[in-house]
Design a protein that fits this description.
Blueprint (H helix, E strand, L loop, with lengths): L2 H4 L2 E2 L5 E5 L2 E6 L2 E6 L4 E6 L2 E6 L4 H22 L2 E8 L4 E5 L2 E5 L6 E4 L4 E6 L3 E6 L2 H14 L9 E4 L15
Antiparallel strand pairs: 1-6, 2-3, 3-4, 5-6, 7-12, 7-13, 8-9, 9-10, 11-12
Length: 179
Amino acid sequence: MSRIGKSPIPIPDKVSVSLDGLAVTVKGPKGELKRTLPDGVTVNQVDNTIVVAPTSEKRQSRERHGLCRTLVANMIEGVSKGYSKKLEIVGVGSRAQVKGKTLVVSAGYSHPVEMLAPEGITFAVENNTNVTVSGTDKELVGNEAAKIRAIRPPEPYKGKGIKYAGERILRKAGKSGKK
């Protein structure tokens, strides 16, 4: 049995959870999330907690036990608090700006790169170099932040590019001069 899966998930105030078999719907102040969990687990609501249990002792069922518990916990936290990822743009002339729901990134290419925010995701830019991706779905926030970082990943020589806030870039020494 999974150590993570064993612990019940508390449901905070202002959050409602509805279960329909393996379909879980969570509504809260920040929005609503729906997800269908894979087979091999059962989800029950006991008082103000959600309990996830494996249906059998098969390996696949035990593997999915902790995963499903974490997915439901992330949904509950997402609709109550929300998630955000911060990115930093490093380099001369590199900047970002928001136009409506579109993030426009100038990262040293011959053209600016435009990214449309999917439903449930918002982009915010501070000082033209700090981008914040926020939303209720943890997976979607992480994927969008990774797509932005992939526009110009940080390079190891000067550290230019788009990196996560707090990310350490392993620096390399440049060419050594002629001897």
